[in-house]
Amino acid sequence: MKLHYLLFLMIAILILSKGNTQTKTDQIIIKFKSPIKKNIKELISSKSFGMEALDNIITHKGLIKIQKIIATKELQNKLFVLKFIPSTDIFSIVEKIQKLTFIDYAEPDYKNSTSGVSKVVPNDTYFSRQWGLNNNGSFSYSSATVGADIDMEDAWAIQTGDTNIIVGVLDTGIKIDHPDFTGRIWRNYAEMPGNNTDEDADGYIDDVYGWNFAYDNNNVMDDYGHGTNVAGILGANGNNGVGYTGVDWKCKLMAMKTQDSTGGGYNSAWVSAIYYAVNKGVGVINMSVGSRYNTTTVAIAINYALAHNVVVVACMMNDNTDSVYYPAKYSGVIAVGATNPNDSRANPFFWSGSSGSNYGSHISVVAPGNYIFGLDSRSNTNYNRYWGGTSQATPHVAGLASLLLAQDNTRTPAQIKSLIEITAQDRVGPTSEDTPGWDKYYGYGRINAFKALNYYTNIYGSLITVKGKSLNNVVISAHDNNSGTTLTQKTDTVGKYKFQLIKGNSVTVKAAKNNDLNTSNGISILDIALVQSHLLQITTLNNPYKLIAADVNGDGKISTLDIVYMKRLILGLDTTFTNTTNGQKRLWAFVDSSYSFLDTTNPFPFKDSISFIGSSANKTNQTFIGVKLGDVNWDWNPLVAKMPNPVFVKPKKLNISQ
Question: Is 0.85 topped by the overall pTM?
Fold first, then answer.
């Protein structure tokens, strides 16, 4: 039994560490410029596209099968995989196919691999083994440094996850019946199990728990072990007294089996899985896999995911070189290297003296990735198996990404990537590699979940009128008094705004004045009469909002000039209330709803901004009140405002000119 396992381990190390399976392939991906009109089922069964020029190239070259890639509506019936007998000269066929005028492109469907290797060890306690989450320096399998972890205990005090976040695990499958995955496996409720029917019309029959893209069936169970380990690192149930804990305790895990029983696979399986996951609503995709080859099809699929707000996290691979692997190299992907329990770069991993965490110009961050204990795909009770590789580092980062989405589901992939990078701990490794700032060995540093979740605070608010009407498309600014930077945005269709700001900094939030430049303003002759009455000291405009409304030109007092502007507006001579001092359009003013106004008129102080000194918690209901300048009585009647021949109340003591 031991001899059999050691033989298995040696084979696994050879395949996964060197990536030799990638130098040869027996498949081709082709994309047509226009959709295939031939019946797809007939096409697949006949192994013929019905196009003489193409069929002549492929049918006599050992073609085994044709398979359609299900992707987007734009790619419908355009993307196919051709599988040939192993001895076929794939590259010469690709060269011939590329010359056909109706082919957009053709490329080898390269083989790829996972990037981790496992080992069985004697029983011990469980969470204490997870040095990457909490490192007290006592890890027995390798030298360890206190604090060389991602600060998960502190991070869980802030966020443990959200059941609405789906994380796609693109790997060798998942042992979905493991107790530590109870309630955590994503299910496609649009599909009824076991009836051999595609209820949701997505092209996959009975895909209840995801899909097996390696063998083209609905069995997503892990037949190798890599995917179960990765999924457990990312999302095993936490605080349940069983086994190990994942980084995220609540997210749903979508099983996308793209790798076969040896850990190898085809790029076309990745492509199909990415489109499947994105179209099913994932927020994060974990890709603890790698290929040496940059292909158009994979690049387009990755960009599709990023464009649809899906975070993609991928491993750097394990050659201990700066060799480039994909998808880690693609722009926008979070590329992850691996560290040891003492914060040094994993070099080598425990399973081979020539292995090591790859490095290079595209690395984003590093995370714990050597001696990583996890769940076993072959047993629900064995917790003595550990793995090592950038594959194991990657789900630590993907789990953090899902927690950041749980904290704020409006964050984009670029924002999450940036947040993980700027909060990573720099200079944790040897000074020969981990130099100040970004470097090619550690990227921006070892991730820190607590710092990432604790970096920002949010300010939520809205803009309304005194009558409670929402004001949309109004510019709101947030000025960071510490950094000097200013963020701006417009209120949404219901008058809401939200800023993500650095926690602890002092910030001033301000609503920009005078953004509503239409003429449905409700300023009428009654407003002029009220202002005139105020100036004549017959009545007093002592309501603070009315005071603001009456100061049309914004000079800090109510005067005859304000009446002139109001009169010109009603006559149609001036529809902008241009402020003569700075040229601003003055139809709106905004005030902080929490401010207590002084009952005075000349001058009258009012507050049109909200200040936060060292803000350390989210601020909600930061509402500004919008006042239509000149509409003193708030009648909001556009018909009156557009009266062609208004009648004016002439003041007794004032000379009002046009």
Answer: no
